[in-house]
Amino acid sequence: MNTDGITVGCIGSGMMGGALMRAMAALFPAESRARQLFVSDADMEKAKAFASGIGATALPSNGELARQVKYLFLAVKPAYIAQVVREISPVLAADAVVVSVAAGVTLASVREAFGSRVPRLARIMPNLPATVGEAMIALCPSAELSHEDCAVVKGLLEAAGKVEVVAEKLMDGVTAVSGSGPAYAFLFIEALADAAVRFGIPRSQAYIYAAQTLKGAAALALEDGRSISELKDAVCSPAGTTIEAVASLERSGFRGAIIDAATAAFEKSIALGKN
Description:
Helices cover 54% and strands 13% of the residues. The chain is an alpha/beta fold. The radius of gyration is 21 Å and the shape is elongated. The model has no long low-confidence stretch (mean pLDDT 95).
């Protein structure tokens, strides 16, 4: 991606904002990052430390950051969105693009917070693997966001993982599947590692076996081309060990439990969006 002339800012240098900015920084030449990448945070010392680590510039206020950039990420808690918008609205450039990272906050809510001076907006739902460059990120552009600006935002975010453009009506489902999904995967890894320990494998190795197995299965699912059912069948030899395990999972309601868990997250996401 050509980053010449692109200026990016992030309000909030916590886990998610920090992960996204750290990934995006790799797209920019080291010698120009201080002129193109900016961060602000309620904790100025935290912002300075983070900015120093990626070669960006920390600014003392959200308003000052908003004056400097075209692409502005709001990585703050949902409860603070309206407050931050009030700070930045008067000083945003006319062609600014504001990307909300706040879970459950709709584009309509962000638009309402801006009042009469609404910038070009987008909303994203990343997940925790952004910290290692393996995020699944849903990007929901507003109607006023141009294809060119949407492509730039998508290109910036792809530094942190895979990006898919989705309609906003699907964002609660995305939250339930990929936003919350890493927690389901971690539970499965932990359970599989516990089984490994039960069989005599040392705990330190058990986690490696379990986590690498899921990582490999996920990579195969994304790259192989066969359906998930076909891949599952490829592991299940006739009268073998795997089909016995699959039968046990089916008797225990494994699929239903996962669907119920994601549905609970989906319903909670809808409820949060109404608050």
